[in-house]
Amino acid sequence: MNKILKGFAISAVALGMTACSENYLNQPPIDSITDEQLSESLEGMKAAMNGIAQTMYIMYNSGATERYGNGEAYFQTYYGDSPSPDFACSWLWGSQAQYQPWTFMTRDTDSGGSYAWMYAYTLINQANTIIEKIDGVSAEQSEKDNIKAQALTIRAHAYTRLMQVYGPRYEDSKGGDELTVVLRLTPGTDPMPLSDYKTVMKQIYKDLDDALDLYESANIARTEGWMPDADVARGIYSRIAMINHDWATAQKMAHDARKDYPIMSADEYVAGFADPNDEWMWFNNRDRSNNGYYSWGASFSCNGGYSTNYNWSASGGQMSWRLYKEVYDKYPDADVRCDLYWMPDKVNWFADYGFKEEDFWDTNYVLPAYLNMWLKDPYMTAAISMWTLSMQPQGYSGAFNIWLGFTPTMSNAQIEGYFAALKQAGYQDRVQFGAQLKFWSSKPDLGDANHPFMRASELLLNEAEAALEQGDEITAKACLVELNSKRISGYACTASGDALKEELRLYRRMELWGEGDTWFSFKRWNITATRDSWKAGDPTSGNFMDAYKGSWAPTYGNGWRYQIPRSEKDYNPYINSQLNL
User: How many CB atoms lie within 10 A of CB 411?
Assistant: First the structure.
């Protein structure tokens, strides 16, 4: 196998990568390109970048039974969302159940702790191959500069991901001397020692500086949303600078990255998050049908196959994302983002029929084991149907599968008949306390969906936070107004000091919920993450299952650092020596 193919074995050849649509995608399959083309041709380099893009959405095998689809989207969900205090979910199969209670963070032998390592270093090895080979290709310099810039951007992105998961907080970096991850700048997998925090940070900064210079010299506009470009590089720069508490750099890069991307409107925000709009800066917009039921949307969109069609236990637990009620309760009723979650205030759909907010804490309506809302009452069932139908984006269908035969104009008698028909058909539970209607799939049977890797709203919030950390409340407030004026009618930001910091953090938590940000933000904020569980008869309680409640101080798990996988430590003796293992 030639050197480039070795770099792509996991993500391309072994998984049968094939050509797609046009531009970079209009390339022959990797395994039909000759060694000479891969090593020496522009077409080979374009195919190699295509391989990197596919690495960010293909299905991975990490064991006999564990599979992870859509590399980047799953990374965001498993690491950026699942451990967060705002993400409630009934993970009821396999090892996925261990992400929510933080079990994977403290063990080095599980697939959950190793997936991020495997995924990031696959990207790094691919990028290193392109960076090493591209200068020797016979082609226009602008073309070579553009491809090299993209590879450098991907490498910086992958190291940023590694630092989010395995790296220390800035406060715990020992002035930059804390050991972090292996810094590989050339193709290959030979054993290497860990590098310290400051060395990895310096290299990420350098990669992004070099990439920005090359993007400028190339002056080639990207043609696909999966391609990184100068704005994506600036966005990644902002992310890593935030981790590094380099607030001036974070603010500038966030501002410059997002300036040509409008913040999505309220209507766009509730339109399903399955199709990109003008705010999406970087996203998976490829044909993902080959992932089937292992696609991201199958498990995580509200109308995906697993969310709507499968019971995960004899008791009928459903796979569904849920927002933590404590966060929801802090938002104003007028916030359009609140429309997307099944919370107690939604009883107003059928308040005249005796369905009350207190029913969300009544075991006659809720199955405590999984927090599913049971079809015990016709008007609760109709209310769920009404809410779901009212929020269903045009062109989508299938969320929760509970409105079979339901119409909003039904009479009381018809509602009773609808309920009876559902019961007779065997429907027992359809939606969980706090379930979301933010993410939809264009193909409900398989869960096909685009997924944002970066949005302008994230960078606007980065800009605001970085400005506030430098004492610039005017900019921070202006950013919040720019965002929330699209979400809350009549919004005005009057807070200051610590109250402004809390307001900024609160709106970040809901705006980016489900997009792989919250746990990383809590880690950066260096604050305790707390979850309260559901308690029958107690409307002040939360909506986590007992198994996932808890409080995690900043010191937990060596400062919220996943352990380096045992497989890597067994293979790489430098690490054992450095860590005195």
Answer: 8
- Residue 316 has a pLDDT of 38
Contacts of 355-360 with CB under 8 Å at 24 or more apart are: 355/379, 355/380, 355/383, 357/539, 358/539, 360/433, 360/539
Q: Give residue-wise pLDDT tens across range 150-189.
A: 999 999 999 999 999 999 999 999 999 999 999 999 999 9
Highest mean pLDDT among 66-80, 417-431, 512-526: 512-526
Q: Is 260 a residue whose pLDDT tops 50?
A: yes
Strands (DSSP E) contained in 447-580 are 451-455, 529-531, 550-552
Residue 559 has pLDDT above 80, yes or no: yes
Q: What is the pLDDT confidence band of residue 38, given thresholds at 50, 70 and 90? A: low
What DSSP designation does 265 have?
A: P
Q: Which of 503, 523, 507 is nearest to 458 (CA)?
A: 507
Enumerate the β-bridge partners of residue 61: 67
pLDDT given at position 419: 86
Q: Indicate whether 508 pLDDT > 50.
A: yes
332: number of Cβ within 10 Å: 12
Identify which of 242, 269, 164, 167 has the alpha carbon closest to the alpha carbon of residue 514.
Answer: 269
Cα(412)–Cα(19) distance, integer angstroms: 55
Separation of alpha carbons 205 and 227, rounded Å: 20
Q: Which amino acid makes up residue 86? A: D
Q: What would the pLDDT profile of 527-551 be if each residue is shown by its tens digit?
A: 999 999 999 999 999 999 888 999 9
| DSSP 8-state class, residue 536 | T
Which residue, 437, 436, 564, 449, is CA-closest to 73? 449
Whose CA is closest to 91, among 419, 386, 320?
Answer: 320
The CA distance from 223 to 210, in Å, is: 21
The single-letter code of the amino acid at 493 is C
Q: Which of 362, 358, 402, 397 is nearest to 378 (CA)?
A: 402
The amino acid occupying position 423 is: K
Q: Which tokens is 40 given?
A: 């020496």
Q: Can you tell me the distance from the alpha carbon of 269 to that of 511, in angstroms, rounded to the nearest whole number?
A: 9
Strand, helix or coil for residue 201: helix
